[in-house]
Each structure stands twice: as structure tokens, then as C-alpha cells.
Amino acid sequence: MSRYYIDWNQSAAEVSSFIRGLSPYPGAWTKLKQQEQEKQRQLKIFNVSVSETLAQANPGKIVVQDKQLFIGTETATLEIIELQLEGKKRMTSRELLNGIALDKSKVN
To answer: Which pTM does this prediction carry?
Structure first.
């Protein structure tokens, strides 16, 4: 994998620092696997924050709650604030969720 690839098995602080350090260029990324599609898509993540309201989720598990996007790490859950899906423009997670359903998706 690329040196810019996000390892969700690290702590929330390490993942957050990794993303912040690579934003905006070259950008930290991961692969998004939507259940209904075979193909994985690249997902760049530019801005996150540690969630204080959502319980711990398994590393790489996507949780969608109240039009907010969360991904689990080893120690806590991160709220994804700004991202870019392969072939799309940079946007907020709310804008992404208005366009596609991620309820049964995961990142790896």
C-alpha cells in the first residue's frame, strides 16, 4: 500500500494526526467498499475530529448517524468532516451522504 494509506487499526490520535499532516496535499486515503458494488473506490479524507458522542466502532467500520459520517479506529470513533470520493469534488460528509447511501459500507 501507499505511504499515504490510512491504517484504521491505529489509535484515533494517530489516524487524526496522519490525516491532518497530509491535508490538503497529497492527502491521506483509504478504500471504500459499498456493499452493493464490487468495485472499491478511493476515498481521500482531509478533515476529521474525534467523536465524543458516538460509542466505539470496530476499526474501519462506517457508522452513519444524523447525516454525519463516522469511522472506527482502534481506540475511538472519528467523525469525517471533509472528504473526496474518487471522481468527485472535495465535499463535506453531509454532501456525500445526500448523494449516496453508506449504511452497509466499510473502509479498509
So the answer is: 0.87
